[in-house]
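User: Show me an example of a complex going from sequences to structure tokens.

Assistant: Sure. Here are the input components:
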Amino acid sequence: MNTSDSRRPYVRPMAGWWRRNPFFVEYMIHEATALFVAAYALVLLVGVMRLAQGEAAWNGWLEALRSPASVAFHAALLAAISYHCWTWFRIMPRTMPPLFVGGKRVAPALITACGLAAAVVCSLAVLILVWGATR
Amino acid sequence: MSESRGNGKLIRIEVLRYRPEQDEEPFLQGYEVPFTDDMSVLQGLQYIKDWLDGTLSFRWSCRMAICGSCGMMIDGEPRLACKTFLRDFPAGSVRVEALAHFPIERDLVIRMDDFLAKLESIKPWIIPKEERSLAQGEYLQTPAQLDVYEQFSSCINCLLCYAACPQYGLNPDFVGPGIMALLHRYNADSRDGAAPERMEVAGSEAGVFNCTAVGYCSEVCPKHVDPANAVNQNKTRAAGDYFLRLVTPKGGAR
Amino acid sequence: MKPISRRSHAPIFWGLFGAGGMLAALFGPVLVFITGIAVPLGFIVPADAMSWPRMQAFAQHWAGKGVLFIVIALFMWHAMHRILHSLHDLGVHAGFALKVACYGLALLATMVTAWLLMASGF
């Protein structure tokens, strides 16, 4: 593509840019986790709808969740959203202001590790809460 | 070969050529270049220009990774040609193209008018909070205050981060990673008082919110500046300005 | 270069994207595991953990309503913002209509969730 400039600068096309570099391929993959996050939100939204419709509707939804297809689908959701978790905290040191503890800057790897540790703590807390409330 | 260097080693350098007066579009042209282990890609290009093809155009100046002139795509990655060595391409060939995402002026020379206009727009100099007379002495700064912005002052305007930024390629209005690193260098300086003016750029439609945190800009920076961090710190700040403006009459950047 | 004059309204959507992304990173995996794998298979938590009386009580409590609303709404805002940008990455550039479609879907999900949670009583 050329502009109307008499020097005829050449502007290269962007089509397929993300296939040019493995870094960009990974970027597109972690951006695609959004599809799974949206899918899970919609699954929960349907659940809330069934709940509002009464006991029979709710039990039908629970039954649907027990189908092998649903369990397999949720395994895919789990993998994708766990990958989102990892990439979210991997980029975090680049997205936040510098953090100083005791006058020294906290290393990026430590920030990522703290984020992942927080996710583990949150997961265990929810599991224990649910386990305690339902056993 | 007219020069007795190379100890018999040859590398094929494929260069993306574009001569606007005769070429409809760029094409790859290969050159066989004798080399020694201490030769950079830039020296390979200089060999081509001196001995094989005087029509080849490229920018260079310092040969020591400080002027930022010789940025180009080397095997698809944005790199400084003076800081990349021919010995590191054991397959025996290397592809050299003009920096991605910029219009090609000629061969490996890109057009940087857009970057320069953006650079002016952020006032890349210290605008003191309060003017001091000579008698009042220096603008003092502690090491901790220096540490906040020091890495961002290492930017050499080489544009590798722009060639690494797909968002700039997709939307050239985006001010981009390098300009944001420079903007942050001044905004984060304790002696400077012009952050509100510069934040108008950061918070505009051409500003930081075009960034999707790809992060490759920071990977390719030859001076270990972290432009992605500058962009994203200013997302937080621009968002703060945006909402603060709603609750306080004089809050925010405007 | 175009003049930099218009303030971006992106902070609203970026804020929701960030909040949803953080929530999904911290709690997404465990929620999917509980509702989609552990409960259906009766694994770790009892199979009747999401029984009608229990879940109805959960959805009728203000805290339960809050959890469901925040999770569904923020996950949707996070996802639709990212999908809008991914479409831009793929060459489908965000005009006004595309923004309305993406953010509109998130807003619709938010409002439907709120309405259903109000309808399920207290």
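The lines above are the inputs; the final block is the predicted structure for all three components together. The helical segments of chain C are 10-41, 52-60, 62-89, 96-119.
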